[in-house]
Design a protein that fits this description.
alpha/beta; 5-stranded parallel sheet; 6 helices; Rossmann fold
């Protein structure tokens, strides 16, 4: 059986019609940087096990961050001793976009991470703070928002 209306015009399915109306306004909006989306300025990963295995799990993530389109640095604050220049090279990270920073004198790794975040010269500041109390998380998040950056803490247990 043929329906005359199908010969005269093209019909969209209900799903296609809904998708077209829902997607069109989104395409016209400018994409906002991730630091303006909400409470995502701070993230934390907790890894347990041998240091070498943990670094192998982190390698793809750090590699992606080192290739970030943002012209700013990927800063690594007080990384574990096993994270060396040789490891960075072997893991395929873009070493030209990475800063390895260590606290000096009486400065703590937390203070250095906060300072690096506030300056805004890094798109992501990765710290290795364990344990990390709630007030320290809040300080890192606030500093990240101030510098329009991301704070990532890696807790190795």
């Amino acid at each position: 059986m043929q329906f005359p209306q199908s010969l005269n015009r093209t019909q969209l399915s209900l799903f296609e019609g809904l998708m077209a109306s829902a997607v069109t306004p989104l395409l016209n909006q400018a994409a906002e940087p991730p630091w303006q989306e909400g409470p995502e300025a701070f993230s934390e990963i907790s890894l347990r096990g041998a240091a070498g295995h943990c670094l192998n799990l982190l390698a793809p993530m750090l590699r992606e961050l080192s290739e970030h389109n943002d012209a700013r640095w990927l800063s690594l604050i007080a990384p574990p001793g096993s994270l060396t220049q040789t490891w960075l090279r072997e893991a395929g990270l873009n070493r030209e976009r990475i800063l390895l920073l260590h606290p000096r004198g009486k400065q703590s790794a937390l203070q250095l991470a906060q300072e690096a975040l506030k300056l805004g010269r890094s798109h992501t500041v990765v710290s290795w703070l364990h344990p990390l109390p709630q007030h320290a998380r809040e300080q890192l998040e606030q500093a990240a928002r101030q510098g329009k950056a991301q704070s990532l803490n890696i807790s190795l247990g």
